[in-house]
Design goal:
Layout: H1 15-22, H2 28-39, E1 45-50, E2 65-73, E3 78-85, H3 91-104, H4 112-115, E4 121-128, E5 143-149, E6 156-167, H5 181-191, H6 205-213, H7 221-264, H8 269-290, H9 295-302, H10 306-317
Length: 320
């Protein structure tokens, strides 16, 4: 396989690039520095250990790299982190599954009464490259810091299970706008492969090491081959995602047009409302039959609630 035309630095959001930078004891100071910025002072990691079961999740997923880490904080506390460079499919449910597995795996095989559910803290760190948070709407946050809380007043219910999603598509700062090390890390993650060198905005020892490590010219021939394969895989995934987004857009436009047409056909106010609902119900049935879209995607396409889609799905299952 021939080499691709390369920039000076590798793309560290590829599977290979992510592992090259963050996946070894030699470079764990880079991962510690990055994670500490994500926790924004809430946790300060002093050391970490790469657990042997590196790939806890579904390794057949394209674009998924998982580090299962045991971290030691500066106060001696120990907690578990799973770091991912992940694919888009079923994002929230997969992260919930991975966190549940990390919790369940802590249980001893016997004598659970003595153990008394002494569960360590668990955090899932998700790097989202090239796609947005599902159901985010018009929000443009690039960092989503999530925990269990009360629905009515927002007070934290349980603080020892957390999810941090990094939404790179929403990080749009230029070099001159970087104000802290979190900004610098996200800027480098998103733009490394297009940079020509270390600017004054990034001139810190930790980033100097990162740039030296990420130089394409320093890769061995077999490393270049692995990186080129990883880069092609990323491009393929982006192409598939772009095609799916175009398909969703066309389906949305068609659904809106059909809904409007059905709504106009009735004549009176009530008739219009009923016709629109019937038209949308038919569109929803067609989208359900295609097996290409999730319930939430269909609701968004048809401009209805998730509950309405579920109602149509139930009626369809009964043959109505």
């Amino acid at each position: 396989m021939g080499e691709l035309k390369q920039s000076k630095y590798i793309d560290i959001t590829t599977d290979y690039g992510f592992k090259k930078v963050f996946g070894s004891d030699t470079n764990k100071d880079l991962l510690i520095a990055f994670l500490n910025e994500l926790f924004r002072g809430r946790k300060i990691i002093a050391d970490l250990y790469y657990n042997k079961n590196e790939h806890v999740g579904d390794t057949e997923d394209i674009g998924t790299v998982i580090f299962d880490l045991t971290c030691t904080a500066d106060n001696g506390e120990r907690f578990i982190i799973e770091v991912q460079r992940t694919a888009q499919d079923n994002l929230k449910k997969r992260m919930l599954y991975y966190s549940s597995k990390l919790i369940a795996d802590q249980a001893p095989k016997g004598n659970r009464r003595a153990w008394n559910y002494a569960i360590s803290e668990v955090y899932i760190i998700v790097l989202m490259d090239g796609f947005a948070m599902p159901d985010a709407g018009d929000e443009k946050y690039f960092l989503h810091d999530i925990c269990l809380c009360y629905r009515d007043h927002g007070k934290i219910f349980y603080d020892d299970l957390g999810f941090i999603y990094v939404e790179l598509v929403n990080f749009v700062k230029a070099e001159a706008e970087l104000v802290n090390d979190l900004d610098r890390w996200l800027y480098v993650l998103k733009n490394m492969s297009s940079l020509n060198g270390l600017s004054t905005y990034l001139r810190k020892p930790i980033f100097e090491k990162l740039f030296q490590l990420a130089e394409y010219s320093k890769l061995k021939p077999e490393e270049r081959e692995m990186y080129n394969v990883s880069l092609r895989n990323k491009w393929d995934a982006e192409s598939i995602r772009s095609s799916q987004e175009d398909q969703l857009k066309r389906a949305r436009e068609k659904a809106m047009a059909e809904g409007k047409a059905e709504g106009k056909a009735e004549g009176k106010a009530e008739g219009k409302a009923e016709g629109k609902a019937e038209g949308k119900a038919e569109v929803i049935k067609n989208l359900l039959s295609s097996n290409k879209f999730s319930i939430s995607e269909i609701a968004e396409l048809a401009g209805v609630t998730v509950e309405f889609v579920k109602q149509i799905e139930a009626e369809k299952a009964k043959g109505k």
